[in-house]
Amino acid sequence: MEKQTYSRRFFLTTSSLLATFAFIPESVKAFYSNVKKLVIRPKEELRFLVTINKKKYRINADSRTTLLDLVREQLQLTGTKKGCDHGQCGACTVHVDGQRVLSCLTLAAMVQDKNVTTIEGLADGDKLHPMQQAFIECDGFQCGYCTPGQIMSAVACVNEGHTGSVEEIKEFMSGNLCRCGAYNGIVESIQKVAR
Ligand code: FES
Ligand code: FES
User: I need a labelling partner for 16 at 20 to 30 A (CA). Which of 1, 83, 146, 155 fits?
Assistant: First the structure.
């Protein structure tokens, strides 16, 4: 009996939506189809130069390629991680001209002629960056999946001087999620390097 009521309601809602759509004027449909054409760009092959970890690359890429896919899929720099791919976890954080950016929300074409640093570019040969060393010493990670993004943000946190208090560090680092909950070690690592 209940199932029947639900089906009737579903039928009525669906048919009224279809009826509404049938009466949308042609001019409105044409407007939305133009917007779609402008917003969803067709595939376009781009060529540009970019410096990643102090090495110049000549890139051929679809205009829709993200910086994250460029470094991971084309250049095999897989240290940068793909977590959500929607700008919500911070796992994909890299530096562009010294500023941290979310590479999943940055188009590769936007870094043309810029300097990109990924986690692979932080160490000096065999010598770890002080932040990498601090993460090891302060237990700043467990599974390690979020760690490259955490370290890139942590370096920016120190460079930009947001280490005045634990609250300030937490605020700056709030875009980097850690499912293992290594937050205390991460804050400790940042304080250590800041000192
Ligand atoms: S993968 Fe970029 S923010 Fe999550
Ligand atoms: S160390 Fe596992 S998600 Fe952060």
Answer: 1
84, 145, 150, 178: which to mutate for ligand 1, most atoms within 8 A of CB?
A: 84
pLDDT at 1: 43
Q: Which residue has the CA at smallest separation from atom 4 of ligand 2?
A: 178
* Structural domains counted in the chain: 1
Beta bridge partners of 47: 60
Backbone angles phi, psi at 66, to 5 degrees: -85, 160
Closest atom of ligand 2 to 150 CA is 4
Query: Within a domain: residue 194?
Result: yes
Whether the predicted pLDDT of 123 surpasses 80: yes
pTM here? 0.80
Q: Domain limits at 131?
A: 122-195
Q: What is the mean pLDDT of the chain?
A: 89
Task: Give the CATH number of the domain where residue 192 resides.
Answer: 1.10.150.120
The CB density around residue 75, as the number of other CB atoms within 10 Å, is: 17
**Closest listed ligand to the CA of 83:** 1
